[in-house]
Design brief:
The protein has one helix at 2-17, and strands spanning 26-31, 40-45, 60-63, 66-76, 80-85, 88-93, 99-105, 108-113, 117-127, 130-133. The chain contains 1 helix and 10 strands. The protein folds into 2 domains: 2-52, no CATH class; 65-131, no CATH class. 0% of the residues are buried.
Length: 138
């Protein structure tokens, strides 16, 4: 029944208004649609008509809480390890010309740290429940 009334309104409006439009003008009718709840729109003008979207509750949907996998780069510090540094000797000659081994630096343990590295880690996170806009304007 509503569609018949809308058709009748469109027919009467077009018959009434079309002789008054300029040569480059337009006559636009819009009835119904999911976003404006069945409203009737009549537009007259000389240029292109932009439909204005009005957000309401039909543009939003409820997204329940869920688990998802995220990947992220994580810096992992380098490991520390202990290495043995051997002693350093130098050869010297005595007055008689005999070689003598002289200790320059004693052997020791030294702590060495490896360089840091990055790894891609995947982990499971919980996403809270929320309302999501389906049209992108809200």
């Amino acid at each position: 029944m509503t569609a018949r009334i809308a058709s009748l309104i469109v027919l009467v409006a077009s018959a009434t208004l079309s002789p008054t439009l300029p040569a480059q003008g337009f006559l636009h009718f819009f009835f119904g649609g999911a976003h404006n709840g069945g409203a009737f729109q009549l537009a007259l003008g000389n240029g292109p008509q932009q439909m204005v979207h009005r957000c309401d509750n039909s543009c939003r949907r409820y997204e329940p809480a869920h688990w998802t996998i995220v990947t992220e780069q994580v810096r992992i510090p380098g490991a520390c390890r202990t290495v043995w540094v051997p002693p350093v000797y130098r050869m010297e000659w005595s007055y008689c010309g005999n070689p003598i081994q002289v200790l320059v630096c004693a052997g020791r343990f030294q702590t060495v740290r490896d360089p840091d590295r990055c790894e891609t880690v995947r982990r499971r996170v919980r996403v809270q429940a929320r309302w999501v806009s389906t049209c992108g304007d809200c």
